[in-house]
Amino acid sequence: MIKVVVNGEQALRFLRAESVDAVVLDWHLPNMTGIEVLNWIRTRADVEYGVLFLTSRVEELDVVRALEAGADDYLSKPFRAEELAARVNALLRRVARNVKRDEQIRAGEYVLDPVERAVWLRDSKIELTTKEFQLVACLFHNLGKIMSRELLATTAWGRELGTESRSLDTHIYRIRQKLKLSIENGLRLSAVYTLGYRLDQTKASADAPDDVRGDVDMLMESRV
Prior knowledge:
Blueprint: H1 8-17, E1 22-26, H2 34-42, E2 50-55, H3 60-69, E3 73-76, H4 81-97, E4 105-107, E5 110-113, E6 118-121, E7 124-126, H5 130-141, E8 146-148, H6 149-157, H7 167-179, E9 187-192, E10 196-201, H8 203-207
Parallel strand pairs: 1-2, 2-3
Antiparallel strand pairs: 4-5, 5-6, 6-7, 8-10, 9-10
């Protein structure tokens, strides 16, 4: 099925709500540029879209800019319909090979399912809002890495938040409570001062088999 949207804001709303395999993106869009939409797409850590840039820009620097921003392919206007179809099909084949992004992630006593957009702690499903799940998925996909406040905000809100905003910290607090991050469950979520947050699998949890995980070090939490 093909869905057409006419501006960047509609694109972001649609991509937040729907599952897609590929995006054909024009550089010139009302409200937002195609590059801005692409930057948002590439910071959605829980989803890996294939992106084809379709535009009248033909300068080498423009091509380089789009590719460096994360576009998978680039097609200049005017174009032949057959070539567009062929490039989209090739892009879909590449996306199909990248199946691991749809596989469940197991960390500590948790299972994250990107397809169902759900998280389980042992056999209990954890109820998360859309933004909470997007943040959790970003952290799960990047275990052990510092996720900047800017990236996390863009992942959940589609834009950076002001320096005075505490929305991200409030969502992180709720995530800690809902996921019950504790000594028994094998994950540590730490605030890295001025930078962002990092989700770590504790050594005992990472080394032990699934049936004996849980004997982990004391959870250390700090607040930004």
